[in-house]
Write a structure and sequence with these properties.
This is DUF4369 domain-containing protein. The protein is of the alpha+beta class. It is built from four helices and 15 strands. Strand 4 and strand 5 form a beta hairpin. An eleven-stranded antiparallel sheet has the order 1-5-4-3-2-6-7-8-9-14-15. The protein folds into two domains: 176 residues, no CATH class; 41 residues. Helices cover 16% and strands 41% of the residues.
Length: 220
């Protein structure tokens, strides 16, 4: 495990607006703004391949697909992935694979498991209009830069984060991409026509977890 940044800025849990018309940013907002999947670091567990279990306050970092945790007021990340079996956070399971953590979504046919890497991307926020006619959202929030993820800044923000999943099927120790019709056909070549017909009839959206799960369920 390695230390990533300096001790947290005191008072993070009670951030307030620092300008007369700035928006109050909650603790959950600040955690999300830094790229974390869950609204807070929550009690979770790390199952080691040795059979032992470590408890910690955990969260999933969508900037780098790592597992972050809090210890003695400091932010750290799990390392030595080769010694980790499974990470449990907020009712979700995460598996380490080639230096990243994948969320377990469901078990599919032929004993394959559907996994997802979770990324973030900025999307426009609702904004107010200044008298000058310029869009402005002046908020007390945190930087999305890991090096100062818990610094309190007052700046103009034109976007917030949304999350995207990239899907994979784990077959033994081999990870197969599952984000398009052709990638699914590559995994199930004998079901090519079934896959094409299902996608056409159901207008499968490979950005939607439920659509991908429905397609895979049809292939069992």
């Amino acid at each position: 495990m390695r230390k990533i940044i300096a001790p947290l800025i005191a008072g993070l849990a009670c951030l307030i607006a620092i300008a007369a018309h700035s928006q109050v940013t909650t603790h959950a907002d600040s955690i999300r703004a830094a790229g974390y999947l869950f609204a807070d670091f929550v009690e979770g567990s790390v199952l080691m391949k040795s059979g032992s279990t470590e408890k910690a306050r955990l969260n999933y970092n969508t900037n780098n697909q790592q597992i972050g945790f809090m210890k003695d007021g400091q932010y750290m990340e799990l390392t030595s992935m080769e010694t980790i079996d499974t990470v449990y956070i907020n009712g979700k399971k995460f598996l380490p694979y080639h230096e990243k953590f994948y969320m377990v979504l469901t078990t599919c046919s032929n004993m394959m498991t559907l996994l997802a890497l979770i990324y973030n991307r900025p999307v426009p926020q609702s904004v107010s209009i200044e008298h000058s006619g310029l869009d402005k959202r002046n908020s007390a929030t945190v930087s999305n830069n890991v090096t100062n993820a818990y610094s309190n800044h007052n700046f103009r923000s034109y976007s917030e984060l949304t999350y995207q999943k990239k899907f994979f099927l784990l077959k033994g120790r081999v990870l197969l991409k599952g984000n398009s019709q052709q990638e699914i056909i590559n995994i199930y070549p004998d079901k090519k026509e079934l896959i094409k017909n299902f996608i056409k009839e159901n207008k499968t959206n490979f950005n939607e977890e439920k659509d991908v799960i429905a397609l895979l369920a049809e292939l069992k």
